[in-house]
Amino acid sequence: MRLRNIPGAQETLDAYPQYVPQDPAALAGQWQTRFPNKQPLYLEVGSGKGQFMVEMAKAHPDINFIATEVQTSVALRILQRLIEADLPNLQILHGDGRLISDYFAPGEVDRLYLNFSDPWPKKRHAKRRLTSPDFLQAYRQILTADGEIHFKTDNQGLFEYSLASMSQSGLAFKAIWLDLHQSDFEGNIMTEYEEKFSDRGHPIYRLEAYFREA
Fold first, then answer.
1. Residue 1 pLDDT more than 60?
2. Who wins on pLDDT, 199 or 114?
3. Are 79 and 16 in contact (CB under 8 A)?
């Protein structure tokens, strides 16, 4: 997601340290201290404007959520939604998803969401895909032993690539949907992109996966 630069965005993020820690790497292993209650910790890598995580936090007050976004102007949009909703179980990690294992201790995260990630369709850019083997190994490090990855996309090519990449990286599939919105899946919360692509008639692909024991 690309947005125009918003003047003062970084200054605004810095003004709300209760929602946006200024040194997220220093919190590795200590993220639960950012929340009033110690609860399962769910992380989204690449949260866009934050619709998914804000609505998830509203729907599941018994879970702690972290929205990750690298672009400052986009992270500001998440913060604006968070301030309006006043959710004690949501934090914003303003940082690079490529460094995700620097921000969390081994086994600290219970579930990881990847929603409508950039497909990087050119073969030479495959390593940039958030379901490439290097990213998956970083997720493996921070997830609990029974942690899960939940992935959604409208891009068939990325979905097929992700199925292969995950299988080759030691993941097993708990469930797979080839047309989520035409299924009996309950409790789906849509992202901004999901709403747009669904309105255009695109099928939404979804999977839930976990790492097999070594």
1. no
2. 114
3. yes
Residue whose C-alpha is closest to residue 117's, from 130, 128, 132, 127: 130
Is 102 among the catalytic positions?
no
Which residues are registered as beta bridge partners of 149?
Answer: 112, 209
- Rounded Cα distance between 180 and 188, Å, is 9
Tokens 């255009």, located at residue: 200
Residue 127 neighbours by CB distance under 10 Å? 11
In one letter, which amino acid is 30? Answer: Q
Chain centroid to CA 154: 16
Number of C-beta neighbours around residue 63 at 10 A? 18
Task: Using alpha carbons, select from 128, 110, 106 the residue that is nearest to residue 41.
Answer: 110
- Residue 214 banded pLDDT, cuts 50, 70, 90: low
Order across the sheet with 109-115: list the strands.
90-94, 64-69, 41-45, 109-115, 143-153, 205-211, 171-177
Residue matched to tokens 């024991």 = 213
For residue 82, the number of C-alpha atoms closer than 13 Å in the C-beta half-sphere is 26
Catalytic pick from 14, 118, 134, 179? 118
Q: Which residues contact 97 (CB under 8 A, 6 or more apart)?
A: 45, 46, 68, 70, 130, 135
Q: Would the pTM count as exceeding 0.90?
A: yes
Q: Give the position of tokens 């083997």.
A: 133
